[in-house]
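Handout, section B. The chain below has 361 residues.
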Amino acid sequence: MKLSIKTTKLQEMLSKAIKGASNNKMIPITQMMKLELKNGTFTVVTTDATNYLYIREKNIEGEDFYVTVEVDTFSKLIARMNCETVTLELKNNSLEVVGNGTYHIALPLDENGALIKYPEPLLDLEGLSNLGTIKKDTVNTILNTVKPALAVTLEIPCYTGYYIGDRVVGTDTFKIASLNEKLFDTPKLLSPEIVNLLNVVTDEEINVLSKDNTIVFNTTNCIVYGKVMTDIADYQIDAINGLLDSSFTSYCKVTKDALLQLLDRLSLFVGAYDKNGVYLTFTENGLQVSSKASSGIELIPYETSENFKSFTCCIDIEMLKSQVSAQTSNVVTIYYGEPNAIKMVDDKITQVIALLEDSRA
């Protein structure tokens, strides 16, 4: 079994494929990748033991080829080559790689001494129902604006995932981010790992297929296969939607960069006992932000102010920074006046941040 492929093309494929390998030392298959040439299509497959990433390239010449190789050594070797083409050939229990030189990579064996066969969860796309398409730009928006709101600990596991239905929602119960765009008729709860893998897609549209708990994202040169999260019933979407749709009588607009720079300066004056809390005071002249000890106070003028009323609240500065940073526009619209939260709206993005207890009260 032997094939030849342009070095730059193989490097491009591997740079994407390695993102699907979790390299968990406790799960050997996550440290391996499959290389296969079949009917002129070359495929590289990696996994984290739950999700599988397939990177494909058509019109590759060579004999049908199949080998399972360790991710680390092979990908690093190919990345260091600057020759025009690379030739891969299976010789006994090793992979011969011919490029700038000749290298032999020992191949992993099973308990019987045979070459490892890579798992095949996705034999074909038959029997899967079509859920529709997702635009690559939508994926980018989800990763840039909704991802920062996801829970990163497992107190309530469902909140580590994206709720995708009439809108795309991420929350850790203290902050919420929502993309107000309907993707699926039947709501799905997707893990952050599978959504992260969609970042390697280059096509403008991604076809989405599903069956039972299996979900597949299919494009010209890439397939992402995985399982939906099964604890969607625990996701309090009705209550979350209520917060996202809540009305506020007052709002203002401030420049994003000015607010981020202010928060960056003020963070130097937030002490260990402040629990990240700072005060926001909406004044007639602008938004004033101050540390709890009042050792740092700064005011930025409004770009716009509607239905102004004097209001002060306490908020987690790091949470606020992360959500402002996730916005795409140059102006931040802040709705205020309610005792439990503020809301920010940026086109189709809605963000809600819970307020902290005001220790001055």
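Note. Residues 246-354 form a domain with the DNA Polymerase III; Chain A, domain 2 fold (CATH 3.10.150.10). Compare this with the example in section A.
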